[in-house]
Amino acid sequence: MSARTYKALAVYCLLIALTVGVTAAFGVFARGTGATEAATSIRGEEFEYATDGVYAYNAERVVAEGVGWDALTLFAAVPALLICVPFVARGSLRGRLAAAGILGYFVYQYLMYAVFWALGPLFPAFIVLYPLSFIGIVWIVATLDVRSLPARFTDRFPRKSIAIFSGVMGLMLIAMWVPRIATGLSGDLAGASLMGTPTLAVQALDLGIVVPLALATAVFAWKRNPVGYLLAAVFSVKGVTMAGAIVAMLISAWIVEGAPEVAPLALFSAATAAAGTIAFFVLKSVRPEGEAA
User: Fold this and answer.
1) CA-CA distances (angstroms) from residue 199 to 102, 106, 124, 152, 192?
2) DSSP code string of 67-116
3) Do the beta carbons of residue 146 and residue 280 sit within 8 Å?
4) Is residue 40 within a helix (H) or strand (E), and if so which, with residue range?
5) Within the chain, how many helices (H) and strands (E) appear?
6) Which 3 state secondary structure label does DSSP give 37?
7) Could you say which of 24, 53, 240, 293 has the lowest number of CB atoms within 10 Å?
């Protein structure tokens, strides 16, 4: 792969990072005054809805979580991608794998935002950012010789750890969301916690995207399939940012509502720490450029 290609890819990642940064900053700093008004959803549920800011017309709890998610993106994910940019420009495998994981996080976040939030001024940014981030992942993968990836990692690649972690995460999401969907379909809308929305978008995306990715990562990593090395890097990096975002969302909701959700907070804090540790060792196990297997 030519040096020009790596530099172009680095510029592309830089532009995405800057655009995401601006979008997330609006979510954090233009969220409005916190004013709300009671309203009844189309399904007959009563909620307090935000009446101003870029996330107006969403339930107060949803806005609180979104501000936490945006804060994590702005102050952690965007700087992480900016750090990757010079390494991507040099053609670093470690840098490209880390960037792919962060872009995977952006794909999920802004696809979720596009289908979940009430229509608002940031909607155009959402529907631009998730496909651009996906294209970035495809571009990064196109620069890799996937079949040779096992030789680019040392024996310290945490194969068992990433297989167990991703498998557990996939099964945990199934255990969390399938009963909730069943509860909603049974007519118990309060139990399903729709939060003023007409459907369960989070559950749809988790079960349709994250769970298959997690289980595929577990299987391919365990079998030492070359694809498993790629998925391990992407899933572990995305995992630490996504689990961290959920922690930030829960803390933000805690600040607004005054009551912490202790069990989810503890669970996803542990998941963040586990994903961060695994991501560190996955990336550390990449051989230095030019080192033979």
Assistant:
1) 27, 22, 22, 44, 10
2) HHHHHHIIIIIHHHHHHHHHHHHTT-HHHHHHHHHHHHHHHHHHHHHHHH
3) no
4) strand 36-40
5) 11, 2
6) strand
7) 293
Tokens of 154: 């040392």
Contact 161/278 with Cβ under 8 angstroms? yes
Asked if 78 and 71 touch (Cβ cutoff 8 Å), the reply is no
User: Per the structure block, which two tokens stand in for 102?
Assistant: 């962060």
Q: How far is Cα 262 from Cα 192, in angstroms, rounded to an integer?
A: 19
pLDDT tens string for the chain (293 positions)? 688 999 999 999 999 999 999 999 999 999 888 899 998 877 777 888 999 999 999 988 889 899 999 999 999 999 999 999 999 999 999 999 999 999 999 999 999 999 999 999 999 999 999 999 999 999 999 999 999 999 999 999 999 999 999 999 999 999 999 999 999 999 888 788 877 788 889 999 999 999 999 999 999 999 999 999 999 999 999 999 999 999 999 999 888 888 888 888 999 999 999 999 999 999 999 998 755 44
- Specify whether the CB–CB gap between 97 and 233 falls below 8 A: yes
Torsion angles phi and psi, residue 51, rounded to 5:
-110, -5
